[in-house]
Known about the structure:
Number of helices: 6
Distance between the termini: 77 Å
Pfam families: DUF1318
Keywords: Membrane, Transmembrane, Transmembrane helix
InterPro entries: YdbL (IPR008309)
Radius of gyration: 24 Å
Strand order of the largest sheet: 4-3-5-6
Largest sheet: 4 strands, mixed
Number of strands: 6
Mean pLDDT: 81
Low-confidence stretches: 46-63, 65-70, 72-81
Amino acid sequence: xxxxxxxxxxxxxxxxxxxVTVNIYFPAAEVQKAADSIVEDVRTKAxxxxxxxxxxxxxxxxxxxxxxxxxxFGPVNAHAAVNIDxxxxxxxxxxxxxxNRFFQLKPFYDKGAIGENNKGLxxxxxxxxxxxxxxxxxxxxxxxENKDRTALYQEIATANKLGxxxxxxxxxxxxxxxxxxxxxxWWVQGDNGVWAKx
Length: 198
């Protein structure tokens, strides 16, 4: 009986000591760099879409302490080095589509008819000054643009194995880039939901 208790106790201690806690790391800084690059590309006049991969930060110099950490017992945080791949065929196709559409959207941004919301999408703002044909055109463009943006955010999550639960985070990061790279006089929606001209 004492042997069973002793073995059980050793087993329980072993389980407690060897527990590993894994924290999933969302590469926000890397996604922000990718978002800035994509938004800049979509809003430029260049016709070529470049393949881009945002590299992960290089690891620092190793030390004896780093070597000893390999043999550490107890909870450990796991952080994977992440390269944000934005060069898949699907992402390139979406970027091309958005880039071709931007010059149709730009006059409506300039007129104040549309703006960038805080969810990474385009939204109608003041269409009262547009004629019937322009209203129809702007509604169609908004629908196409938002469809592409939603697909882009999902594709980035899929291509980088970030999980579909990260799509709202990716959209929020892109919202920062769309708003940040908007021209003066364009409508942007702040994180608090308030609209203002940039």
